[in-house]
Amino acid sequence: MKPNKLETFIYALMKEARRASLMDFLEEWDVSEEEYEAIEEWFKNELGIKL
């Protein structure tokens, strides 16, 4: 079951990451572009959330 505030949390996280640069954010957390794309696809397919 999806938590109630999951979409709000993800939106806020992505908004914060885009403030400077999403790629800088991913690099800081050691997440490659390919890994991010897989994460993005999972959220879309499993939870219906577009990052």
The main sheet comes to: none
C-alpha end-to-end distance:
19 Å
Gross morphology is globular
Q: What is the arithmetic mean of pLDDT? A: 87
Helicity, as a percent range = over 70%
Round the Cα radius of gyration to an integer and report it. Answer: 11 Å
Q: How many strand segments?
A: 0
What percentage of amino acids are in beta strands? under 5%
Q: Number of DSSP helices?
A: 3
- The secondary-structure class comes to mainly alpha
Q: Give the SSE string.
A: HHH
How would you portray this structure in words?
α1 packs across α2 (22-28). The chain has helices spanning 6-20, 22-28, 33-47. The chain contains 3 helices and no strands. The protein is an all-alpha fold and 51 residues long. Helices cover 73% and strands 0% of the residues. It is globular and about 30 Å long.
Which short descriptors sum up this protein?
3 helices; globular; 51 residues; single chain; mainly alpha
What's the short version?
It contains 3 helices and no strands.
What's the SSE blueprint?
Layout: H1 6-20, H2 22-28, H3 33-47
